[in-house]
Design goal:
Helix content is 21%, strand content 31%. By secondary structure, the protein is α/β, with parallel strands linked by helices. The chain has a domain of 113 residues: Rossmann fold. The strands form two sheets. A six-stranded mixed β-sheet has the order 5-4-3-6-7-8, sandwiched between helices. Strands 1-2-10-9 form a four-stranded antiparallel β-sheet. Strand 1 and strand 2 form a beta hairpin. The longest helix is centred in the N-terminal third of the chain and has 18 residues. It is globular, with a radius of gyration of 16 Å. The two termini are 32 Å apart. Bound molecules: guanosine-5'-monophosphate. Guanosine-5'-monophosphate binds next to strand 6, helix 3 and strand 9.
Length: 185
Amino acid sequence: MSFYSPEFVTCNDEKFKVLITKEEIQKRIAELGEQINKDYKDKKPIFIGILNGAFIFLADLMRHVSIPCEVDFYKLSSYGDEKVSSGKVTERKDLDADISGRHVIIVEDIVDTGLSANYIKNIVDRKKPASVSFVTLLHKPESIKYHIDVDYVGFEILPQFVLGYGLDYAQEGRNLAQVYVLDED
Ligand code: 5GP
């Protein structure tokens, strides 16, 4: 199967180049899946994907998980259509599953300032799960403003705007199979 993975892409009139290739992404996700298989053996975790950005990462990650598990989704929005965070989080869809007493793994596309992660952690904590952990494909440690413990990180990146593999720019570019960054050249 060949996924959409050009070397350069233009999105909303701006040019982007590859930052993390599809091979690097898939290799790292397989490692994260293996780690989760070990850490959650006999715990039947429930993955909570944060929409929209995490849907592709979650789909690939879950296919590397071989222990019994479930999935549900929570929808947040914080970026609007810009390249910098709006600093406001809006809830757009709550969970359907009852997570009290469950081992919850929250799945994010990217942790930037940490605002969304803290927001969702508070909501999940109030529902009295047995445990909560965080997995994110991308983490920008230099951008953190709200502390959050992230248990599983795919890649640490610099504080730069990225696109692809679920992450959008004004709703475009989620279908790219690699992670892209602005091409300043
Ligand atoms: P935070 O609340 O940590 O500042 O931001 C989290 C959300 O902002 C992510 O789930 C994602 O939707 C969006 N976001 C943060 N950084 C980027 C980025 O570099 N590119 C894109 N496309 N979205 C981002």
